[in-house]
Amino acid sequence: MRNKIYADAKTALQDVVADGMVIMAGGFGLCGIPENAIAAIRDLGPKNLTVISNNCGIDDFGLGILLANGQIKKMISSYVGENKLFEKLYLSGELELEFNPQGTLAERIRAGGAGIPGFYTKTGYGTIIAEGKDTREFNGEHYVLETGLVADLSIIKAWKADKEGNLVYRKTARNFNPMMATAGKVTLVEVEELVEIGELDADTIHTPGIFVDRIVVSQGAEKRIEKVTTRKREEVK
Fold it and tell me: I need a surface site. Which of 23, 34, 106, 203 has the fewest CB within 10 A?
């Protein structure tokens, strides 16, 4: 059995990252993002990256640190509203953006991982999203052709992994991570807990280890909350 475990994210990525590559990055907002892997990519310094991710972090955290470092040329995303630098770079023409409805983005990634080159969806028909794309009519309904997405590298976050790379995600941190794990030519997973093979209940595994190439244990992750929303406590009488 090939050893998939690396000492840290930088070591795991140093022979993989390159200028101009396509990277998928798991997470939704700041939930379930591979913090160590993103920091390693910043430190290794590849430029002109195309990044596929639901969003681009915030100005000083998550993928936002790669944007601030001038490493990202293009984003393929569905939501970018929490990053002021993103807005500035896009409006000035310094950053390319391929905008996707969120469900379409998820399905494009899933399709890419499943080897499906394209699919038709109702979402976006008759809007700017459909411009330049093939459209067809099925059973009286109109659909837009969307293509599957694949990446040179997928960086994802999981809760637990065994040494073969079988993965379990925790609650909403599951988000885009499972589908991105299947769609990368190389998949690096950053995990909170690493266990021996056989310790995970087979029925709880979300991503089989066959999709995972490299494993690192997360170190010093901040797990920031993007927006703290609380309700006012009721006064105790």
Answer: 203
Provide long-range contacts, Cβ within 8 A and 24+ apart, for 2-7: 4/163, 4/164, 4/165, 4/209, 4/212, 4/213, 4/214, 4/215, 5/163, 5/194, 5/215, 5/216, 6/214, 6/215, 6/216, 7/216
Structure confidence by residue, pLDDT tens digits, 149-175: 999 999 999 999 999 999 999 999 999
Measured between alpha carbons, how far apart are the two ends of the chain, in Å? 63
DSSP string, 137-159: EETTEEEEEEE---EEEEEEEEE
3-state helix, strand, coil in the chain (%, to 5): 25, 30, 45
Give yes or no for residue 102 having a pLDDT over 80: yes
Which residues contact residue 236 at a Cβ distance below 8 angstroms, ignoring those fewer than 6 apart?
A: none
Q: Yes or no: say if 38 and 71 are a contact pair by the CB < 8 Å rule.
A: no
Q: What is the pTM of this model?
A: 0.93
Please state, in angstroms and rounded to a whole number, the distance separating the CA atoms of residues 129 and 83.
Answer: 22
The answer to whether 158 touches 207, Cβ cutoff 8 Å, is yes
Residues 10-59 pLDDT 10s? 999 999 999 999 999 999 999 999 999 999 999 999 999 999 999 999 98
